[in-house]
Design brief:
Blueprint (H helix, E strand, L loop, with lengths): L2 H6 L4 E4 L9 H12 L4 E4 H4 L5 H29 L8 E3 L5 E3 L11 H16 L4 E7 L4 E7 L5 E4 L2 E4 L1
């Protein structure tokens, strides 16, 4: 199936990931140009979404971004519309890294783990305000549970052999 056929079949988002685009993005950019000509609503390009060497991680992130960004855009627009009369309100969203971004810059790839990041940030700030510098956090959702330790600073997470460790 080509892009024209995909658009005719009702597909409105496209994820573009070429094996070596982290070095040479020319081919991804060319396909993105064709997708724009076909009027796709969401075009996620791997070398911009996730500029990593490894194709699988870059591709997975790009596909998630292509799928989630239109949904997030509708939600952001809906919330923005509700707040439009409040000129003093700046709408921002929490990203997976725990940082905030302007609502209109929020993308699907940035929302994958915003819940766990929010749990860590809110727990540490609340703990500091209550005078605690040693905390253990637990956040259980519908499909996952996250546990973390806080001792005067947020610790760095790393992966080793399919297990998550905190240093």
């Amino acid at each position: 199936m080509n892009l024209k056929e995909a658009k005719q079949d009702g597909i409105d988002s496209v994820a573009i990931a070429f094996m070596h685009s982290y070095v040479n993005s020319e081919h991804e950019n060319k396909i993105a140009e064709i997708a724009r000509e076909e009027n796709f609503n969401q075009i996620s390009i791997s070398h911009k979404v996730s500029p990593l060497i490894k194709l699988v991680g870059r591709g997975d992130t790009t596909v998630a971004d292509a799928y989630l960004s239109p949904i997030l855009r509708r939600y952001v627009n809906q919330v923005s519309e509700e707040l439009k009369d409040s000129k003093s309100t700046k709408l921002m969203f929490m990203q997976s890294n725990g940082g905030l971004t302007d609502a209109h810059l929020f993308q699907g790839k940035d929302a994958l783990l915003s819940g766990p990041a929010g749990g860590v940030v809110s727990m540490t700030e609340t703990g500091k305000q209550a005078g605690y510098d040693k905390l253990i956090g637990f956040d259980m959702g519908g499909t996952s549970a996250d546990v973390w330790h806080y001792f005067n600073n947020i610790e760095k997470k790393f992966k080793k052999d399919n297990f998550n460790f905190y240093s």
